[in-house]
Design goal:
Length: 117
Amino acid sequence: MKYLLLTYGNQEKWASLPAEEWPEAIAKQEAFNARYRETGELLGAYGLADAVNTRLVRRADGMPVVTDGPYLETKEYLASFYLVDCESEQRALRIAADMPWADAEPVELWPILHESA
Protein backbone atom coordinates (compact mmCIF):
# COMPACT_ATOMS: atom_id res chain seq x y z
CA MET A 1 0.00 0.00 0.00
CA LYS A 2 1.20 3.51 -0.74
CA TYR A 3 1.40 6.31 1.81
CA LEU A 4 2.24 9.98 1.68
CA LEU A 5 4.44 11.30 4.50
CA LEU A 6 4.17 15.07 4.99
CA THR A 7 6.40 17.41 6.97
CA TYR A 8 5.74 21.05 7.79
CA GLY A 9 7.91 24.03 8.62
CA ASN A 10 8.49 27.73 8.10
CA GLN A 11 11.32 30.20 7.56
CA GLU A 12 11.54 30.91 11.28
CA LYS A 13 12.29 27.24 11.98
CA TRP A 14 14.87 26.99 9.20
CA ALA A 15 16.58 30.20 10.35
CA SER A 16 16.78 28.92 13.93
CA LEU A 17 19.08 26.07 12.88
CA PRO A 18 22.68 27.34 13.02
CA ALA A 19 24.40 27.28 9.63
CA GLU A 20 27.08 24.88 10.88
CA GLU A 21 24.36 22.30 11.75
CA TRP A 22 22.80 22.22 8.26
CA PRO A 23 25.31 19.79 6.71
CA GLU A 24 24.65 17.21 9.45
CA ALA A 25 20.87 17.69 9.20
CA ILE A 26 20.96 17.24 5.43
CA ALA A 27 23.22 14.18 5.76
CA LYS A 28 20.74 12.58 8.19
CA GLN A 29 17.88 13.18 5.77
CA GLU A 30 19.88 11.81 2.84
CA ALA A 31 20.77 8.71 4.90
CA PHE A 32 17.06 8.18 5.64
CA ASN A 33 16.25 8.57 1.93
CA ALA A 34 19.00 6.13 0.90
CA ARG A 35 18.00 3.54 3.52
CA TYR A 36 14.40 3.35 2.31
CA ARG A 37 15.26 3.63 -1.38
CA GLU A 38 17.46 0.56 -0.89
CA THR A 39 14.53 -1.38 0.61
CA GLY A 40 12.38 -0.27 -2.34
CA GLU A 41 9.88 1.39 -0.01
CA LEU A 42 10.75 5.04 -0.75
CA LEU A 43 9.41 5.92 -4.18
CA GLY A 44 10.18 9.64 -3.98
CA ALA A 45 11.31 12.39 -1.61
CA TYR A 46 10.56 16.01 -2.46
CA GLY A 47 11.42 19.27 -0.70
CA LEU A 48 9.17 22.21 -1.50
CA ALA A 49 9.99 25.87 -2.06
CA ASP A 50 9.18 28.48 0.56
CA ALA A 51 5.51 29.46 0.85
CA VAL A 52 6.22 32.89 -0.66
CA ASN A 53 6.76 31.05 -3.97
CA THR A 54 3.37 29.32 -3.82
CA ARG A 55 0.74 30.30 -6.36
CA LEU A 56 -2.97 29.58 -6.45
CA VAL A 57 -4.39 28.89 -9.88
CA ARG A 58 -8.06 29.10 -10.74
CA ARG A 59 -9.87 29.32 -14.02
CA ALA A 60 -12.23 32.15 -14.91
CA ASP A 61 -13.83 32.40 -18.34
CA GLY A 62 -11.46 29.72 -19.59
CA MET A 63 -8.34 31.64 -18.57
CA PRO A 64 -5.98 31.01 -15.66
CA VAL A 65 -6.23 33.41 -12.74
CA VAL A 66 -3.08 33.31 -10.60
CA THR A 67 -2.72 34.75 -7.10
CA ASP A 68 -0.13 34.42 -4.38
CA GLY A 69 -0.57 31.47 -2.04
CA PRO A 70 -0.79 29.43 0.00
CA TYR A 71 -4.53 29.22 0.29
CA LEU A 72 -4.70 29.06 4.08
CA GLU A 73 -3.12 31.63 6.35
CA THR A 74 -0.98 29.48 8.59
CA LYS A 75 2.17 29.73 10.64
CA GLU A 76 3.56 26.52 9.14
CA TYR A 77 3.27 25.17 5.64
CA LEU A 78 3.98 21.99 3.75
CA ALA A 79 7.77 21.66 3.57
CA SER A 80 8.33 18.23 2.02
CA PHE A 81 6.60 15.04 1.06
CA TYR A 82 7.65 11.44 0.65
CA LEU A 83 5.90 8.67 -1.23
CA VAL A 84 6.38 5.20 0.25
CA ASP A 85 5.05 1.82 -0.75
CA CYS A 86 5.15 -0.76 2.03
CA GLU A 87 3.47 -3.90 3.27
CA SER A 88 1.30 -2.39 6.00
CA GLU A 89 0.24 0.70 7.88
CA GLN A 90 2.40 -0.44 10.79
CA ARG A 91 5.46 -0.46 8.54
CA ALA A 92 4.57 2.99 7.19
CA LEU A 93 4.25 4.27 10.76
CA ARG A 94 7.71 2.89 11.59
CA ILE A 95 9.19 4.59 8.53
CA ALA A 96 7.51 7.90 9.45
CA ALA A 97 8.84 7.64 13.02
CA ASP A 98 12.34 7.07 11.61
CA MET A 99 12.36 10.47 9.87
CA PRO A 100 15.31 12.49 11.23
CA TRP A 101 13.08 15.34 12.46
CA ALA A 102 10.32 13.12 13.92
CA ASP A 103 11.64 13.54 17.47
CA ALA A 104 10.97 17.29 17.25
CA GLU A 105 8.27 17.66 14.58
CA PRO A 106 5.36 15.39 13.69
CA VAL A 107 5.11 13.61 10.34
CA GLU A 108 1.65 13.23 8.81
CA LEU A 109 0.87 9.83 7.31
CA TRP A 110 -1.82 9.74 4.62
CA PRO A 111 -2.94 6.45 3.04
CA ILE A 112 -3.27 6.73 -0.73
CA LEU A 113 -6.59 5.22 -1.72
CA HIS A 114 -6.05 4.85 -5.47
CA GLU A 115 -3.63 5.68 -8.24
CA SER A 116 -4.58 6.79 -11.72
CA ALA A 117 -3.38 4.51 -14.49
